């Protein structure tokens, strides 16, 4: 029998948990690739379930005993392993070592450059993983003179745990950081710090002591962390407005005008439809190949690339991992866009307790976690468990198994009616005193107002619990500062969260006013989705279609088709908005994402963008990225590096990029880098300076 003092993970039923797809002509039904959990370990939800005895097995071949009180409808089925990460595509585009006259093989130069970002910590470029060595040979790794940290199978193993015990977003991150690579990262994390009167004061007073290849420029640092990628326009805005004013403006996104890319979201027709309209028009939309849950993801990608409300979009992505409801679940096509608008986006910079209360009354969450099927005589504990384990206090937050059951009993009665709207059914609500993690309530009435008030009071209680404050603080510090954030910062953020009763803006201001944030230069690596979005941003891709584009008789506009292409590429890379199939969200530490195939696939996609092959958007020709290109190769690389990553590269990195073009620093070149400008720009985008954020 499982220890009653340890909240066990229970297997889920089939609805919404298997990441099933809805095939269509765009290839969207290809196998989904969720976040990788390491090369040789199972998905964290795999295994560990055998200890959870199926009560049906006790009565196999004999009548079940008469029911006594509430019947527990335990979620059924063993956990499924995550689909294997794709092996990677596009390697032949780097396989050009045998070109006549080329002194340095382009493939080896690219790998020696980009491989330094394969496991990046502390900003000092680290060596490649064994998987990358296997693809490209040890000589590439041997060329890295910056020192090495090996990421092997231990990268996915929790420190002192089995993968099956990795259950929550934060704990999942911490388990990865217990690996050998994680231990190396911890040594280069920022130390303790203090709070200053404002972000600019904190930036000015903080000395960056960690090892990093990034320029220790606070404006660049702010732009990399508070947006999905620094652009010349963002840098200019921060310099003109000042850091304090720019952050204040970002924290008030309603006053920022929409961008062209956001205005064009009107071309995604399902995003303007209500839940009722989506239900009524389901068949018609299917005939038109219009899928609301996919268009919602497409719209999210557009906002990440083009919105001026960048900090808001970063926080939307954060909450979509923390309070995660997958885009693809049975019902997502009707309800997920409403959840995005009415729960996550409405409260992303507001109150987390209010967000959690709203989520617990939204059909998307009630369907996703089977709460709509829970009633007093057949209680389903899915949502009650995840409210504690994932969405508030965390698995180590102090709750026990009886707390889960008491919460599940209290939350009965909430469901979805035949019209797809939230409903409270008093006849299905359990009545009786409850005690959950220090929260007590008589719960002595099935009257809708009183019963719902009791549930809301409980949800608010756990959302403002000290363990939730720490959990949110740890997750925010991991997102914005370091894979191993200092305890001093986590404690400070948690205190602000508690003092302000879960309001998010004060927590973010505490973060930006803390020296630990400004000391963390180079301590975060872009995950696949973030790398791709940052590439679109830095290359200045425009949402308008290229003059060369022929949309033919497509039912969708060029803009809609282009967004879907990016969406599909993200899925291929293993990360897309709201794409994780299970409620724990994507991991937010780099050692969870080490993959040679994904890295090379990302480089090749950067090459595709530079070449402007996809005419659904307008691209800046690579020879026009620098307004007045210098006449020599070395100076041109410097200018192009400043344009794309905001700083010059090291001498070693610069020489590797010159090797990609097969020229010396003093070689005379034209605006096209003598025909090699696309390869040179792509190599810069493969550098640690672009992989880091």
UniProtKB/TrEMBL annotation:
- The regions listed as transmembrane in this protein's record are 109-128
Q: Report residue spans for region: Disordered.
A: 1-102, 143-168
Keywords for this protein: Membrane, Transmembrane, Transmembrane helix
Which residue intervals are annotated with compositional bias (Polar residues) in the record?
159-168
Extent of Basic and acidic residues compositional bias: 10-23
Protein name (Swiss-Prot/TrEMBL): DUF1800 domain-containing protein
Organism whose genome encodes this protein: Micromonospora noduli
Write the lineage as a comma-separated list: Bacteria, Bacillati, Actinomycetota, Actinomycetes, Micromonosporales
């Amino acid at each position: 029998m499982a220890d009653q003092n340890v909240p066990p993970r229970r297997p889920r039923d089939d609805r919404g948990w298997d990441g099933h797809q809805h095939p269509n002509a765009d290839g969207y039904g290809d196998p989904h690739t969720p976040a990788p959990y390491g090369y040789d370990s199972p998905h964290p939800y795999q295994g560990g379930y055998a200890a959870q005895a199926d009560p049906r097995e006790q009565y196999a071949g004999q009548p079940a005993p008469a029911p006594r009180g509430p019947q527990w409808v335990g979620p059924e089925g063993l956990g499924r392993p995550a689909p294997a990460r794709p092996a990677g595509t596009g390697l032949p585009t780097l396989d050009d070592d045998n070109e006549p006259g080329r002194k340095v093989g382009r493939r080896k130069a690219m790998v020696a450059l980009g491989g330094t970002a394969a496991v990046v910590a502390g900003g000092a470029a680290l060596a490649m993983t064994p998987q990358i060595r296997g693809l490209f040979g040890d000589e590439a790794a041997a060329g890295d003179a910056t020192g090495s940290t090996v990421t092997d199978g231990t990268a996915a193993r929790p420190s002192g745990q089995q993968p099956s015990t990795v259950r929550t977003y934060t704990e999942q991150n911490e388990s990865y950081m217990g690996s050998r690579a994680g231990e190396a990262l911890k040594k280069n994390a920022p130390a303790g710090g203090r709070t200053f009167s404002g972000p600019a004061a904190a930036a000015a007073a903080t000395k960056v002591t960690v090892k990093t290849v990034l320029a220790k420029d606070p404006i660049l640092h702010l732009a990399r962390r508070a947006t999905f990628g620094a652009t010349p326009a963002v840098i200019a805005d921060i310099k003109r407005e000042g850091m304090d004013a720019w952050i204040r403006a970002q924290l008030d996104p309603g006053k920022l005008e929409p961008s062209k890319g956001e205005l064009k979201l009107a071309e995604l027709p399902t995003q303007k439809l209500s839940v009722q309209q989506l239900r009524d028009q389901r068949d018609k939309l299917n005939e038109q190949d219009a899928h609301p849950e996919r268009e919602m993801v497409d719209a999210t990608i557009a906002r990440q690339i083009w919105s001026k409300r960048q900090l808001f979009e970063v926080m939307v992505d954060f909450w979509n991992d923390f309070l995660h409801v997958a885009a693809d679940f049975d019902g997502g096509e009707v309800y997920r866009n409403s959840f995005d608008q009415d729960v996550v986006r409405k409260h992303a910079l507001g109150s987390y307790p209010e967000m959690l209360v709203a989520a617990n009354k939204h059909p998307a969450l009630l369907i996703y976690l089977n709460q709509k099927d829970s009633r007093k005589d057949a209680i389903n504990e899915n949502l009650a468990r995840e409210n504690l384990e994932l969405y508030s206090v965390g698995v180590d937050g102090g709750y026990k198994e009886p707390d889960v059951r008491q919460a599940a009993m209290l939350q009965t009665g909430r469901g979805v009616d035949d019209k797809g709207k939230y409903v409270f059914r008093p006849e299905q609500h359990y009545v009786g005193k409850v005690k959950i993690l220090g929260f007590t309530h008589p719960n002595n009435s099935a009257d809708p107002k009183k019963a719902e008030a009791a549930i809301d009071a409980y949800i608010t209680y756990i959302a403002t619990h000290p363990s939730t404050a720490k959990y949110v603080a740890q997750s925010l510090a991991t997102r914005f500062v370091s894979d191993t954030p200092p305890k001093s910062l986590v404690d400070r953020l948690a205190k602000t969260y508690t003092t302000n009763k879960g309001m998010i803006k004060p927590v973010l201001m505490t973060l930006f006013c803390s020296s630990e944030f400004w000391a963390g230069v180079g301590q975060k690596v872009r995950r696949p989705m973030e790398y791709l979005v940052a590439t679109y941003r830095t290359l200045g891709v425009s949402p308008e279609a290229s003059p060369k584009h022929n949309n033919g008789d497509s039912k969708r506009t060029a803009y809609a088709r282009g967004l879907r292409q990016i969406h599909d590429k993200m899925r291929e890379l293993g990360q897309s908005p709201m794409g994780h199939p299970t409620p724990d969200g994507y991991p937010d530490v780099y050692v969870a994402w080490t993959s040679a195939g994904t890295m090379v696939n990302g480089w090749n996609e950067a090459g595709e963008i530079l070449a402007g092959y996809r005419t659904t958007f307008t691209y800046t020709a690579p020879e026009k990225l620098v307004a007045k290109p210098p006449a020599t190769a070395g100076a041109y690389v410097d200018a192009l590096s400043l344009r794309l990553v905001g700083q010059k590269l090291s001498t070693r990195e610069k020489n590797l990029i010159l090797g990609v073009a097969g020229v010396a620093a003093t070689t005379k070149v034209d605006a096209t880098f003598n025909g090699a400008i696309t390869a040179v720009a792509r190599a810069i985008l493969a550098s640690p300076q672009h992989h880091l954020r």
